[in-house]
């Protein structure tokens, strides 16, 4: 009997040797005459256990990890194909606390199904949302998404339903759905994981968005740093076209919708929606002034929905299970679930989808298990390079858009990067300016010039040149950048800088002469 | 491993690439990617060909090409090693790894070794933030990079 063995093809698993493990498993099976079928699934998001190999047994899936190619022979010796015990046994993966305690709505199938099997996708509840949407009017779909309370998961937190309604109401010969898959924030990988692990859910979400707004063409603007996601997404789109999920008549509805992947070219600023649209049009990725909103004049000056991958991938479950079901998770005005990405110097790094409302401390200390180095946590940066650094004293902050804004921070794309006590926050502040200088599109002065001057000024503080005067200068510069920049790159760079200055003042007041003598 | 070195430039080949992609909405980025795929870089000689076909000025095409970090005027070395310099990798000693790589490869970021063996590039996030520090060697991802791994990559690309 052929036994199905799952070895993630997720690039996080590949980076830890999953391809070598897959090869070793295939070779060893041939050598021993064992009949196995290898499925390259997505990752379940438990990266400290990757590559995590799973076997489909009579008692359900059994997991082993982290598996190296050198472990393969001993796995066969222990009869892992029957789910038997081995030093790397993890048991039923669904029972691992990190996974068991999650609420997986958007990531329900990720790591479980074969990403390129539409049959598998449907067997696990896929396409139900799209089937329901096909039977609904456009405005009913929009209303459902509005009622769900879904807000843009890219970082801005704008209500998705309202954006869709604007596009539905806008007149135009051609409307577009543009998926922002330019996930450039350090500490985030949820978009990558879903595109590699469950690409059909994004396709389904985009098709629903098309039906809801009368848009017939979708683009996925996917960053070039994600070659594996590009390959898997393109294959999935091909399959969806072949099976009538995409094309001239979506699921036989008579309504057309098709998707094309466009590859970015290494510009971080293209994660900003107007700069992304310019890039998609073949121009320099320079930010546009708003208004006009992309919903009115977006791609090719036509009405365009621009949504993040996770926003779109959350739509199928909302249509499938209803607005109330989704809305009943969460707190305050942050409804539903959020895939938190726990990254950096952390023991249990990975993806943790849960309802809004966990405190930062619970996420870092309990779920993440503290630092990988075993040293005390000094700071966590929430929301990528434009997010604030939070000290331990603020770990009671609940994961909620408004709560983070209230503490001069942001959730952003929900990435959390953990730093231990060896981190130098003055260096991190300088890096924030340097990064902004490298990635600035150059359109507005506070960002283009401010970032360069900011990095120079922090450098002066580092050298002990008039530190108090220069700290005041940095604060003033941050104020100018925050209120004078056209987009979030220049406008939010002050978050990491000011939070470092405010919460870690001692790091900026080291005596450089003493330091040099050490 | 695959060589990145450019075959001889051909304006006709560039024209053919443009003809293939010109019907896309906003074709310039796909064209530049395809040209770079073909020649290992976007040679300056390709710009007027693209510009003429798209009814743009050469300056406009150059402006787009030079805006994006991915497009290069000169071909990279036989191997390209990208090392993530962003925060999640910094938190796991990425700066130390970056310095070690510079020493090993004897080049700075953005440079190609004189023997053409390797180009070292900085990248800002490969989405491997839960297995940092991360790198990419000829398009293949590598996680939890340490000094020994850099040494191994170095002997591989120099061989």
Q: Largest sheet of chain B at a glance?
A: 5 strands, mixed
Q: Note poorly predicted spans of chain A.
A: none
For the largest sheet of chain B, list the strands in their spatial order. Answer: 2-3-1-4-5
Structural class of chain B: alpha+beta
Secondary structure tally, helices of chain B: 7
Text of the CATH class of the largest domain in chain B: Alpha Beta
Order of helices and strands of chain B: HHHHEHHEEEEH
What is the CATH domain class of the largest domain in chain A? Alpha Beta
What is the 3D form of chain B? elongated
Task: Please give the share of residues in helix of chain A.
Answer: 40-55%
> Span from first to last CA of chain B?
11 Å
> What's the structural domain tally of chain A?
4
Q: What class do helices, strands and sheet pairing of chain A give?
A: alpha/beta
Features:
heterodimer; A: 518 residues; alpha/beta; Glutaredoxin; Rossmann fold; Ubiquitin-like (UB roll); 4 domains; five-stranded mixed β-sheet; 41% helix; 15% strand; globular; B: 159 residues; alpha+beta; 7 helices; 44% helix
Summed up:
The complex is a heterodimer of chains A (about 525) and B (about 160). With about 525 residues, chain A is α/β, with parallel strands linked by helices. Chain A is about 40% helix and about 15% strand.
Kindly describe this structure.
The complex is a heterodimer of chains A (518) and B (159). Chain A has 518 residues and is α/β, with parallel strands linked by helices. Chain A has four domains: 3-100, Glutaredoxin, CATH 3.40.30; 118-326, Rossmann fold; 329-420, Ubiquitin-like (UB roll); 425-517, NADH-ubiquinone oxidoreductase 51kDa subunit, iron-sulphur binding domain (de novo design (two linked rop proteins), Up-down Bundle), CATH 1.20.1440. Chain A is built from 23 helices and 16 strands. In chain A, the strands form four sheets. A five-stranded mixed β-sheet of chain A has the order 2-1-3-4-5, with helices on one face. A five-stranded mixed β-sheet of chain A has the order 13-12-16-14-15. In chain A, helix 11 (227-242) links the parallel strand 7 and strand 8 (258-263). The termini of chain A are far apart. With 159 residues, chain B is α+β, with helices and mostly antiparallel strands. Chain B has two domains: 11-67, no CATH class; 79-158, Glutaredoxin. In chain B, 44% of the residues lie in helices and 13% in strands. Chain B has seven helices and five strands; from the N terminus they run ααααβααββββα. In chain B, strands 2-3-1-4-5 form a five-stranded mixed β-sheet. Mean pLDDT of chain B is 94; it is low at 1-5. Chains A and B meet through helix 1, strand 8, strand 12, strand 16 and helix 18 of A and helix 2, helix 4, helix 5 and strand 5 of B.
């Amino acid at each position: 009997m052929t036994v199905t063995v799952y070895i993630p093809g997720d690039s996080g698993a590949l980076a830890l040797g999953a391809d070598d493990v897959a090869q070793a498993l295939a070779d060893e099976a041939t050598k021993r005459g064992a009949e196995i079928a290898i499925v390259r699934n997505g990752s379940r998001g438990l990266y400290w256990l990757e590559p995590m190999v799973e076997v489909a047994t009579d008692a359900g899936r059994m997991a082993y990890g982290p598996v190296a190619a050198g472990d393969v022979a001993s796995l066969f010796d222990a009869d892992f194909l029957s789910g038997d015990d081995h030093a790397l046994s993890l048991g039923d993966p669904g029972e691992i606390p990190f996974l068991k305690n999650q609420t997986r709505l958007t990531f329900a199938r990720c790591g479980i199904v074969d990403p390129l099997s539409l049959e598998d996708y449907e067997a696990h509840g896929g396409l139900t949302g799209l089937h329901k949407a096909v039977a609904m009017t456009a405005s009913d779909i929009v209303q459902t998404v509005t009622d769900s309370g879904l807000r843009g998961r890219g970082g801005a937190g704008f209500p998705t339903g309202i954006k869709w309604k604007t596009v539905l109401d806008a007149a135009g010969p051609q409307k577009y759905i543009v998926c922002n898959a330019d996930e450039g924030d350090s500490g985030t990988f949820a978009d990558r994981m879903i595109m590699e692990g469950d690409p059909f859910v994004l396709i389904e979400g985009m098709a629903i968005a098309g039906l809801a707004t009368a848009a017939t063409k979708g683009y996925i603007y996917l960053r070039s740093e994600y070659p594996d996601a590009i390959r898997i997404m393109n294959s999935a789109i091909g399959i969806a076209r072949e099976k009538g999920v995409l094309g001239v008549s979506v699921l036989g509805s008579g309504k057309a919708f098709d998707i094309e992947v466009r590859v970015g070219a290494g510009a971080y600023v293209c994660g900003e929606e107007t700069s992304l649209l310019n890039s998609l049009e073949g121009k320099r990725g320079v930010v546009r002034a708003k208004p006009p909103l992309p919903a009115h004049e977006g791609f090719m000056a036509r009405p365009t929905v621009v949504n993040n991958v996770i926003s779109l991938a959350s739509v199928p479950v909302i249509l499938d299970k209803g607005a109330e079901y989704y809305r009943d998770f969460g707190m305050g005005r942050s409804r539903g679930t959020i895939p938190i990405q726990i990254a950096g110097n952390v023991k249990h790094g990975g993806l943790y989808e849960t309802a809004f409302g966990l405190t930062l401390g619970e996420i870092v200390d309990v779920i993440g298990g503290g630092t990988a180095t075993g040293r005390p946590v000094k700071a966590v940066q929430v929301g990528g390079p434009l997010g604030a650094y939070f000290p331990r004293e603020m770990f009671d902050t609940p994961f909620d858009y408004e709560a983070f804004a209230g503490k001069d921070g942001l959730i952003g794309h929900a990435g959390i990067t953990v730093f231990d006590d060896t981190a130098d926050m003055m260096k991190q502040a300088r890096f924030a300016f340097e990064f902004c200088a490298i990635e600035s599109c150059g359109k507005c002065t506070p960002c283009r010039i401010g970032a360069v001057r900011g990095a120079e000024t922090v450098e002066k503080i580092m050298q002990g040149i008039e530190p108090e005067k220069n700290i005041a200068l940095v604060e003033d510069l941050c104020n100018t950048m925050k209120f004078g920049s056209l987009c979030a790159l220049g406008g939010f760079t002050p978050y990491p800088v000011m939070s470092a200055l405010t919460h870690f003042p001692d790091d900026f007041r080291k005596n450089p002469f003493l330091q040099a003598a050490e | 491993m695959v060589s990145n070195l450019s075959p001889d430039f051909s304006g006709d080949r560039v024209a053919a690439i443009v003809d293939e992609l010109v019907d896309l909405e906003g074709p310039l980025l796909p064209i530049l990617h395809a040209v770079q795929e073909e020649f290992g870089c976007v040679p300056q000689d390709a710009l007027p060909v693209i510009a003429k076909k798209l009814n743009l000025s050469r300056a406009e095409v150059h402006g787009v090409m030079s805006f994006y970090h991915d497009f290069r005027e000169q071909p990279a070395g036989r191997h390209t090693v990208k090392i993530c310099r962003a925060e999640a990798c910094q938190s796991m000693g990425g700066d130390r790894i970056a310095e070690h790589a510079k020493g090993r490869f004897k080049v700075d970021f953005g440079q190609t070794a004189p023997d053409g063996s390797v180009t070292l590039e900085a990248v800002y996030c490969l989405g491997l933030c839960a297995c940092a520090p991360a790198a990419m060697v000829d398009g293949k991802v590598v996680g939890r990079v340490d000094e020994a791994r850099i040494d191994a990559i170095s002997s591989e690309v120099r061989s």
